[in-house]
Input
Amino acid sequence: MKFHLLTIFPGIFDSYLNESILKRAREKKAASFKIHNLRDWTTDNHKTVDDTPYGGGAGMLMKIEPLYKALEAIKKTNKKVNPKKRKVLLMSASGQKWNQALAQKYSKLDEVIFVCGRYEGVDARIKKFIDEEISIGDYVLTGGELPALTIIDSITRLLPGVLGNKQSIIEESHSETGVLEYPQYTRPEIFIANKKKYPVPKVLLSGDHKKIKEWREGEMKKQ
Ligand code: SAH
Output
């Protein structure tokens, strides 16, 4: 899976993509990440990526030309990819809400290109040149970089060979609609804080796998 990130803040991604599971995914060649600086596709000396909105109103908007040029160029970097297995996603507070089912669906793609907005957003004509607008929740962030990382993270951990234990993907929250994981505990058996005891549920210490399974199924809440 190849991920492209189109942004005016390329430095944001370095640390997150270079730690833990995402780093491992890259080392195992399950995922690759390419960061593109939108300013590389500007033509003026100031490398302008934004302008005021027609009709007036607060703030600045991202201009369409550099975005269009960048998208065309990025698509050409990987000629081998089947266009049906590539998606261009615009990060947008008003887009379709991201969820685990979409993460599963998109994990079957070969290439995903993220357009990270900034300012008050992007000239609406961008919609003709992208596949989906995606939101990560009903709140407004300052940019599309965290949403893109959130989506990349949720897709990458589903890619074959990335997580050590396949079972962790099957039994987790949202793996089926409305299913949430059962509570889990690790040592110590009794945790004491302010003289109060917090024991682990007894059934988990019983060694009775059938009973444990029943207890866990009972705890998995259907929404
Ligand atoms: N004026 C816009 C908000 C712009 S926020 C509005 O009212 O909807 C600037 C950028 O941050 C957006 O272009 C988008 O790329 C990103 N962004 C903000 N909140 C987001 C969210 N919840 N999900 C995905 N992207 C978001």
Notes: Residues 64-77 form the longest helix (14 residues).
